[in-house]
Amino acid sequence: MFDAFKNRLPRTSILYCCVGSLVLVALVFLARDFTYRTIHKSERTAFERSCSILSKEILSYVYGLQGMAGIVHTHNYEPSFSQVRGYARNRDFFRNFGGALGFGFIRFVPRGELSAYLEKVRQQKPDFTLKSLSNYSGDHFIIESIEPSELNGIAQGLDVATESHRRTAALRSRDSRESTLTAPLKLYQAKSVGMGFLFFHPIFDTSASKARFVGWSYAPILMDQLMKSLKLTADERLEFSMTDVTEANRPLEIFSSDGIKRNKVETEYFSRLKIAGRVWEIRGGVANQSYHLIIDALSVAIFFALTFIFGSLVLFIEDQAKKRNDSNKKLGEVESWQKAILDSAGYSIISTDTNGLIQTFNLGAQDLLGYASHEVVGKTDPSPFHDPREVARRAEELSLELGRIVPPGFSVFVEKAKELGTSDTQEWTYVRKDGTTFPVRLCVTAIRSQDQQIVGFLGIAEDISKLKELESLVELQRVSLFSTAKMSALGEMAGGIAHEINNPLAILDSRISLLLLRSKAQQIESSWLEQELLKLQMTIVRIAKIISGLRSFSREGTKDPKTDVRVGDIIDGTLDLCRERFSNHGIQISLRGDMAVTISCRAVQISQVLMNLFNNSFDAIHDLDEKWISIDVQTSSNATKIVVTDSGLGIEEETIKKMMEPFFTTKELGKGTGLGLSISAGIMAAHAGNLRYNKMSSNTQFILEFTHA
Amino acid sequence: MLDLTSRTILIVDDEPELLEIMSQILEMRGAKVLTAKNGIQAFTVWSENQQVDLIMTDVAMPGKDADGISLVKKIRAVSSGKPPIIMITGYSRQSEAAALAAGAAVVFAKPFRTQEIESAIGRLLEEDKNQNKG
User: Fold this and answer.
1) β partners of residue A599
2) Which residues in A lie closer than 8 A to residue B15 (C-beta atoms)?
3) How many angstroms separate the most distant Cα atoms in chain A?
4) Are the beta carbons of A614 and A642 closer than 8 angstroms?
5) Dihedral of the alpha carbons of B32, B37, B38, B42, in degrees to the nearest 10
6) Measuring CA to CA, how many Å separate A546 from each of A432, A487, A499?
7) How far, CA to CA in Å, does A91 sit from each of A44, A58, A225?
8) pLDDT digits (tens, 9 = 90+) for A456-510
9) Helix, strand, or coil here: A142?
10) Terminus-to-terminus CA distance in chain B, angstroms?
């Protein structure tokens, strides 16, 4: 991945990453802010609810105070200690007024009546002691009773007027006739515990026509305890601080929770509470706001996660783009190669879709056919490049071969390739744009998709006109070689043939001389003359036969149709060309077997084979003491054989191996072509027969075998 | 006009037709004609008829040592000058040369003109006669 970053990330991607990261940071911050705002809103709600609960709690004490006032009233403004205690107990004090330390009664004792009051009280409670917090010398506000005494006993007898906060609040309560709180202060009975305040409720004796102020029911409230007693739910359990700001220039702290003290509240909410003559400013919030860490950590985590995802995405896209780019590039390269191959080939390469519509038409095709690519691609199938007559002919041939109708047209070119599954190569005639034609070897391949569906065809055509020229040249040379070999065989007998003709010519001349001689001597009888003339005619016929045999032998015989010919005629015709020669060399010719049997053959070619054999025999035996050639015709139900045997004593093993090969000869230079036996063997093979040497014979023997069809 | 009266001529040829014609021609000229169809037969005929004035023989004839050249060689081995021998060949100048070397007086190549042979016979017999006189 990092390697990928380093190596593959192009500048655009870095840009994407930067911009993306900035957007991500903004998004994360917005999300974070939103989260905070949501949290703050819920915190504020909780805070405000807490404030409201606090306010209600404090005001609920008014009932307690009124109840206490009621006791005072009921007991004619002189409640006994036990009566006060009873009330406090009846009110289930601690449950209902959890924040208050107790309820009590403070007696208003005008200045100067203190002694009388003390005396009266001490009748009931002898140890009642007056306590003061300063040397104040005004009216006395003396705590007469306070319950539960176990907690508050120490405060009994305290003259609360001796302290300004208490006095002020008490007086305000009397004057406003409202329940009134003191400013925050240290409670006398719980100095070390923390701040608290007193809650005064004025009591007037209204039984007389003019109300007489009696004193106050009161409750000392300890802030810590109050806070504890508030029935707050978990999310309302906030950190608080309360400051009395009734006198704006002299704020007094009432209460501060641990969290506030330790400065652990990050987000504080403010509220002003006007309650029982006091104005409290309440600050509060959630302490130990670990969610900050969580949110921030989450934000960071989300940021990184998003960055990672984004980065990966960018990388992925980049990678894909690169791959696409690479593959495009590779594809481009491949295409370049293909184009180079297509264009450099001297071949015509044409591809078509399945319907034959030309898709590509390479340079070779353009050169060979004379069409420009744009003239044919997407416009036509390859038919215009073909000779319609040839296409029609092939259509017929294909229909026969495949056993179904192949209509003349594009299918003629591809049907075989489709059938074969491989490529089909045929020779065709291509027609150039200018109408000229040339032969091609066209290889058609069906192009298949991976699921073997044919998606198109590819035709690669090679101009074979040069090849054709060469082929015809080779054929020409082959034929001429063939004929050379034959003429050579004839040439070997040139002298012999001259003799074949010379001899009858000599006979003609001498017979004519005889006739002249008789004529001069007038010794000619008509019957004799007639006989002589007939003899002359026969001699001429003999010459004519030799000449015609010679002409037929020298003629090209390879394309003659096969005909049924008597074997004897072929042998005679051949011997006519060499009889004199053999006889001149003392070579005896003997014929055996059924000369009337016929074989289907090209007589000239068989004559050539025999001539070759006779020549070989002649060369082999003319110097021997014993000179003969025998020709035996053997016929059976399935073959006719011409067995040629001469007086030679066989052929050396080495020569046997090679004698049928072309250009092998044992004859002296210039005498033999080395082609006689190989051509003879070829001729016999073409006649469904064979030419073989019979090793088993004691004399040299060749057998021409014609198998019957 | 060639006159071969009282002359004996031996003709050797494996071709019976030619043998027959030449015989008739020479007999028309008054000669006594002996014939043989090969060299061996001819040598026998010549051996038995020492009066043969001239031999006319073909070169190529079938049979071992039956050819004209062999015949000439054998006769010349016995009788160097006589009789004069005319050889007739259907082959090349090589065989002409061989014939002359063997002892033939004249060699004719086929196809020959019969008249020329007659002239040659007359001339050779004339020379022979002169030699005898001389």
Assistant:
1) A565
2) 503, 507
3) 232
4) no
5) -20
6) 54, 16, 11
7) 35, 16, 18
8) 898 988 888 888 888 888 877 777 676 666 666 666 655 556 667 888 888 899 9
9) strand
10) 24
Residue A483 token pair: 């004929």
Averaged pLDDT for residues A583-594: 86
A200 near A183, Cβ under 8 Å? Answer: no
**Under 8 Å between Cβ of A292 and A187:** no
CA–CA gap between residue A493 and residue A39 (Å, rounded): 131
Query: How far apart, in whole angstroms, are the C-alpha atoms of residue A651 and residue A620?
Result: 10
pLDDT class of B120 with cuts at 50, 70, 90: very high
Lowest mean pLDDT among A182-191, A596-605, A688-697: A182-191
CB contact under 8 A, B91 and A586: no
Structure tokens at A455: 């998606």
Arithmetic mean of pLDDT over chain A: 82
Asked if the C-beta of B111 comes within 8 angstroms of chain A's C-beta atoms, the answer is yes
Bridge partners for A206 per DSSP: none
* Interface check B115 vs A, CB under 8 A: yes
In whole angstroms, give the CA distance from residue A685 to residue A691: 8
- Contact state of A506 with B66 under an 8 Å Cβ cutoff: no
Q: Are A136 and A161 in contact (CB under 8 A)?
A: yes
Q: Pull the structure tokens for residue B64.
A: 């071992």
* Beta-sheet pairing, A195-205 with A212-222: antiparallel
Residues 6+ apart with CB under 8 A from A486: A553, A554, A608, A679
CA neighbor of A164 nearest in space, from A145, A178, A184: A184
**Cβ proximity of A181 and A169 under 8 Å:** yes
Spatial separation of the C-alpha atoms in residues A477 and A462, rounded to whole Å:
25
Check if B94 contacts A (Cβ < 8 Å): no
